[in-house]
From TrEMBL:
PANTHER family referenced in this protein's UniProt entry, alphabetically: RAB FAMILY, RAS-RELATED PROTEIN RABG3F
Gene Ontology MF terms: GTP binding; GTPase activity
Membrane topology type: Lipid-anchor
Annotated protein name in UniProt: Ras-related protein Rab7
Pfam families the record matches: Ras
Membrane-spanning ranges: none
GO biological process: protein transport
Organism listed in the record: Aegilops tauschii subsp. strangulata
Main location: membrane
Keyword field contains Lipoprotein: yes
GO cellular component labels: endomembrane system; vacuolar membrane
Family: Belongs to the small GTPase superfamily. Rab family.
Localization per Swiss-Prot or TrEMBL: Endomembrane system
Keyword terms: GTP-binding, Lipoprotein, Membrane, Nucleotide-binding, Prenylation, Protein transport, Transport
Length: 186
């Protein structure tokens, strides 16, 4: 019989202010989207029960403020993370250019035991805006960035339309489990 033991998976979502971190989290957990923009202060988290390969997990998704002034809070929130999701807006080159800073900052603050193999997932959000006409970061450019960072999985998402949100989080769960220690058999 499959064990019904629950495991907690901690996922951190990082990226510039306004790229859609909160919206992606709400779309995934609550299947809801709001046009009301309200900046996250500090950090917030939602949980969702997920099943993966006949095991039950509690996914704890930490949504962090994109403003620099809250970055000092990082250490406490990043510790113990199983996966880090980096988000940028495909319509904003600045949010894409800042990905390196977010990734580096996370690795410094979280200090994972094996930083080279720590699971990251990149989401290019807001692909629905203006029918894709205001887009400034190409999928090719994003994929090249991912390849340069050890082949980070990449998804183009729309929190508003729900595009690829479920698929992206399935990948996030799978990647978060990669570093799970092998279970002791007794």
């Amino acid at each position: 019989m499959a064990s019904r033991r629950r495991t907690l998976l901690k996922v951190i979502i990082l990226g510039d202010s306004g790229v859609g971190k909160t919206s992606l989290m709400n779309q995934y957990v609550n299947k809801k989207f709001s046009n009301q923009y309200k900046a996250t202060i500090g950090a917030d988290f939602l949980t969702k029960e997920v099943q993966y390969e006949d095991r039950l997990f509690t996914l704890q998704i930490w949504d962090t403020a994109g403003q620099e002034r809250f970055q000092s809070l990082g250490v406490a929130f990043y510790r113990g993370a199983d996966c880090c999701v980096l988000v940028y807006d495909v319509n904003s080159m600045k949010s894409f250019d800042n990905l390196n800073n977010w990734r580096e900052e996370f690795l410094i603050q979280a200090s994972p035991s094996d930083p080279d193999n720590f699971p990251f997932v990149l989401l290019g959000n807001k692909v629905d805006i203006d029918g894709g006409n205001s887009r400034v970061v190409s999928e090719k450019k994003a994929k090249a960035w991912c390849a340069s960072k050890g082949n980070i999985p990449y998804f183009e998402t729309s929190a508003k339309e729900g595009t690829n949100v479920e698929d992206a989080f399935q990948c996030i769960v799978k990647d978060a489990l990669k570093n799970e220690p092998e279970e002791e058999l007794f």
